[in-house]
Fold:
Amino acid sequence: MTEHITAFDIAEHLETDDDIRDFLRESANNGSQSDFIHALSIATRAKGMTEVAKQVGVTRASLYKSLASDGNPRFETITKIVEALGCKLAVH
Structure:
């Protein structure tokens, strides 16, 4: 018998807006800057790249490029993505 192992994709488990907010909050509070950008990428895939790209005002391809591991999104882009995901950036 051969075992089939599939990759775990967190995006598949972020089913609600609350799930996405909790995921981003955890990443922002406990991760690095690059961890947060990676979490934004995952949350954006969970919400729908096309939908988020429309809300942000960029193309889907541009959004993928900004959130890629070698991307360098502007703060304005990050803020718009966070807002499109139903969240706000805050300093406490």
